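ok so for the tutorial part 2 we go from a plain amino acid sequence to predicted structure tokens. step 1 is just haveing the sequence, like this:
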Amino acid sequence: MTVDLDAVAKDRNIQYFLISFVDLFGVLRSKLVPARAIGAMQEEGAGFAGFAAWLDMSPADGDMFAVPDPESLIQLPWKPEVGWLAGDLYIDGQAIEASPRVALKAQIAKAEKQGYRLKTGVECEYFLVNAAGTGIADDRDIQSKPCYDQSALMRRYDVITAICDSMIELGWGPYQNDHEDANGQFEMNWDYDDCLKTADRHVFFKYMTKQIAENHGLRATFMPKPFSNLTGNGCHAHVSLWDSPGEQPFRGCR
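step 2 — the prediction. this is what the tokens look like for a chain of 254 residues:
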């Protein structure tokens, strides 16, 4: 049964929705939609000019529409009157194959035809940097091998726990947070799930981490190599194939 976003907005007191998609450079793009309009947006999608968002289009192309997936709905823990939605991109009624979410759903469909269900987990690394973005936020984080440094981790306790508490509230099942290999670098882990759900959560996690860092007067970056003298950011992906119901993993598959 399709979730009625208009009814959900009334029930959860959501006043605005962010209808979002990820461009080909990994940037999150959105429209902010008042709850009064979400019923129409659920059917028709939010309109975007594709050429203006780094998609392979020109100004001559028509508008594309991000049709929100109600199952992806996440209320912002720090601003619960706003709901975030992942959207699938369409133009002239046809799915845009270059859309990352559309591409993933196509692979999911292929796997399902072969009796497989794909589950994934991610280990996201990021740097906490100063407000100007010119260096790491903690000038005392100077160990030559800072991985798992408790003191540096606890100096950023307020930010780390704000992010982790948000994941707990959202039901993601976070289970550890650590200082990573580079000075100023951290990693957070949460439970694996179906690959589309993990992908949506990964996108939202990056946005959430950046926003919470800003709320604490800092910035967060997931850039692969923000500082030439420090280990770069990675994101380990744990991938496993399961049977169609998602109850039994295939042996030897990781």
